[in-house]
Every structure is written in structure tokens, then in C-alpha cells.
Write a structure and sequence with these properties.
This protein is an all-alpha fold and 222 residues long. It has ten helices and no strands.
């Protein structure tokens, strides 16, 4: 019973952080505001999480883990570059609608002034990159574009689209569609390329593939 009560209190505290960030911003997260929102004593924040910063990190971690699970499920049934991009775009739309994008925007805005938050942002974005990158790599294996376009380059373009959605979509409602329009056009161009005669494809590959290999972003593993 005591363990269940502790788990419930922890969930309420994490949920309180998410609620406050969504309503008033990350700067409004204080021990007093979180305790009031959760309906508990402030001391329980430090009892269960050690510091307010650790509670904030736990709240973000839970929110992002839930979002990444959605991405994994959506991407598991996606085949081909176009379907993967469509799935990512749809999930970003969900993030925007349920407040997840706003949470990330607050984190990124605060990261410039707080190294702990900057580290958290890097970790969460790195996990997003990994999930989407693995899906893109699967989609491109044995496809006409394998070796022609670096999956890492496409991941970075998709990540840029996600960050654009997070940071400017509130001011520019078309940012999400615009960010992915270029990637979708790339998919259509590569589809046309796959229908070219084999000698032409080989000639193009021989000139382009080495360049993509040398230009691909190199992200060290965490």
C-alpha cells in the first residue's frame, strides 16, 4: 500500500510539472507551484526526487518516453521513405496538438541558460534521432536509393523540421507542412530516379553516392 501511494504521489508530481509548463512556462515551475498543483506538501518533491531539477527531468523523460513509444508503433508499419516521412509528420502533429511540442519548446528555450536542461535536451533529441534514424535505415535498405542518399542526412532534415515545428509553428501554422514538403519532394524525385534505365542509375550513383558518404553528418554515440 505504501509503495502504491508513493508511486501515485510521484505520478501526480510529474503531471503537475507538465501542466504548469504547458500553462505558464518552465520558468513558473517552483517547488511551491508544483506542490500546489499536485495537492501535496512541498517536502514530498525532495523526498521522492531529491531536487526540483530532478523532478523536472523525470517529468520530461516520462512525457518523451510516451511520445517515442507512439513513434515506434507508427514507424513499425511504415515501408519506404515516403511512408516513414508521413508517419513522422503525423506524430509531430500529435505532439503539437497534445502539448508535447510546447513542452519541448520550453525546454529548448531554457537550455541556453541551464546546462542541466541543455544536457536533458540533447539526450531527448538524441533518442528521437535514433528512433527516426532506425526507421529510415530500414526503409532504405534494398531500395533504389540505398547508397545514394545518406539516412543520416535525411534524419537531420527531419530533425530540423521537428525543431522548426516546435519553435515556430505557433507563429507560423504552416511550418510543419512546409518543413516536410521538401523531404516529400525528395522522395518523389528518388522514385522517378528508380525508374530510369539501369546504366543511367549506375552512372548517377557513381558520381553522387561518394559525395553523400563524405558529407553525411557524423554524430558520436552517447
Amino acid at each position: 500500500m505504501a509503495r502504491e501511494a508513493a508511486a501515485l504521489t510521484q505520478r501526480r508530481l510529474r503531471a503537475a510539472v507538465v501542466t504548469i509548463v504547458g500553462r505558464r512556462g518552465l520558468a513558473s515551475v517552483t517547488a511551491r507551484s508544483v506542490a500546489a498543483e499536485a495537492g501535496v506538501n512541498q517536502a514530498l518533491i525532495f523526498y521522492h526526487f531529491g531536487t526540483l531539477g530532478d523532478l523536472v527531468a523525470a517529468a520530461y523523460r516520462e512525457s518523451v518516453d510516451e511520445a517515442l513509444e507512439r513513434y515506434r508503433e507508427a514507424l513499425a508499419s511504415a515501408h519506404g521513405l515516403g511512408e516513414v516521412l508521413d508517419a513522422v509528420k503525423a506524430e509531430l502533429g500529435t505532439d503539437r496538438a497534445d502539448g508535447g511540442a510546447a513542452l519541448m519548446a520550453q525546454l529548448l528555450a531554457a537550455a541556453g541558460q541551464d546546462e542541466a536542461l541543455a544536457k536533458l535536451a540533447r539526450e531527448l533529441l538524441g533518442e528521437w534521432r535514433t528512433v527516426v534514424g532506425e526507421a529510415l535505415e530500414r526503409a532504405m535498405v534494398d531500395s533504389p536509393v540505398e547508397g545514394l542518399v545518406s539516412p543520416a542526412s535525411v534524419v537531420e532534415a527531419a530533425l530540423s523540421g521537428m525543431l522548426g515545428t516546435v519553435l515556430v509553428d505557433g507563429a507560423e501554422p504552416g511550418a510543419l507542412s512546409g518543413s516536410f514538403a521538401t523531404l516529400r519532394e525528395l522522395d518523389r524525385t528518388l522514385a522517378r530516379f528508380s525508374r530510369l534505365p539501369s546504366p543511367v542509375r549506375r552512372a548517377v550513383r557513381s558520381g553522387i553516392a561518394p559525395k553523400f558518404a563524405s558529407d553525411a553528418p557524423n554524430h558520436p554515440s552517447r
